[in-house]
Amino acid sequence: MELFMPLFIAVVVIFGFIKKVPLFDAFVIGAKDGIMTLLKIAPTLVGLIVAVDMLKASGATDMLCELITPLAESLGFPKEIVPMVLLRPISGGGSTALLTNIYKDCGPDSFAGKVASVLAGSTETTFYAIAVYFGSVNVKKIRHTLFAALSADFTAAVMAVLTVKLFS
Hints:
Elements: H1 4-18, H2 23-58, H3 60-74, H4 82-87, H5 92-106, H6 111-122, H7 126-136, H8 143-167
């Protein structure tokens, strides 16, 4: 497995020589384009990170979790996954930390642990993906995409619970 990357690079270099591609020039152009893309999306990412940190620091996510938990429990959601359902579309790292806490507190083989695992594998960091992909091509109108993506995240949460109930 350690040889995969060196072999891959060797194949690319050999293929470039065969096709008579100026490899170093192509590399420099690609690196320049990558930096330009980074500069284009950096303000959007900084804004997203600041917004996420403000939500966490203000306690808004905790208040929202407390409001939603009774309804979620009545629908069969384990109360332990409610914060993860809310945080997953916003922050991949934060939701992974919550997943780890669920494993530690409830156990990976518990109902909450299984639902959280399925949820982690079937949802997307929606706001991050929209910020990166739409920001890189300067798309400003995202309302339909955002609604569709958040609907998909909600559907994934419901299906995670149903799937674990069905197969447990």
